[in-house]
Amino acid sequence: MLMSGRAATRRLQAAGLTERSARRVLAAGLAGEPQRITAAHLYDEESVERLAERSTIAWSQLREACPHGVFVARRPGPPADLEDGWPMSLAARFWVDHGIAQHGCFPLVATVAGFVSTGAEIVASHDEPVAAPAPSRTGLTLRPPGGWYDAFRDRRLSTGPGPAWLLLNVPGWISASGAA
Fold first, then answer.
1. 169 with 63: CB under 8 angstroms?
2. Same domain, yes or no: 129 and 87
3. Where is 70: in which H helix or E strand?
4. How far apart are CA 19 and CA 122, in angstroms?
5. Are residues 24 and 47 in the same domain?
6. Residue 86 to residue 163: CA distance in whole angstroms
7. Which end of the chain has fewer CB within 10 Å, C or N?
8. Could you give the C-alpha distances from 19 to 35, 47, 55, 75, in angstroms and in order?
9. Rounded distance, CA 11 to CA 175, Å?
10. pLDDT digit string (tens) for 39-80?
11. Strands 106-112 and 70-73
């Protein structure tokens, strides 16, 4: 069965999202592509229900899946859209590069309003050229995720509102973040 965008938004609100977050999740395609008719978007009811019922990954599961840390990207889109334009401090870049040097990669999980949309592994980082006086940006080279991503697939990651990215579970840090 199909349901209207408004009904899908209300169902996601009942699962704890704000109206704005519910609309962002739907716009990102996490409930599938809507059927567009003249005055509305229609969503598959079962897809919306599965989305609303996603469980939240526990911090203990996150620590087990990614014992050396995880980069949480708060950006929708496929992995190719996650490679460019990250405002990253030298300390954060150090931890990502250290993880790559020690373990061959650094896990990345992309979320939209706390819903995991995709995962990847960061295998390199590089400076991106920017015009002065813009702040520096870091680009990432990504590959498909390994087995660690199974802990995140079709789950929610509760991090609350915040910046464009987070580093979680990095040894010695509680978290680090970067504004967009």
1. yes
2. yes
3. strand 70-73
4. 32
5. yes
6. 11
7. N
8. 20, 18, 19, 18
9. 32
10. 889 999 999 999 999 999 998 999 999 999 999 999 877 778
11. parallel
pTM score of the predicted model: 0.87
What is the total count of domains within the chain?
2
Q: 128 with 154, same domain?
A: yes
- The answer to whether residues 106 and 48 belong to one domain is no
Q: Which domain holds residue 116?
A: 59-178
Three-state DSSP class for 14? Answer: helix
Question: Is there a single domain that holds both residue 78 and residue 154?
Answer: yes
- CA end-to-end span of the chain, whole Å? 38
Within this chain, do residues 36 and 90 fall inside the same structural domain, yes or no? no
Secondary structure percentages of the chain, helix, strand, coil, to 5: 30, 30, 40
Mean pLDDT (the chain) is 89
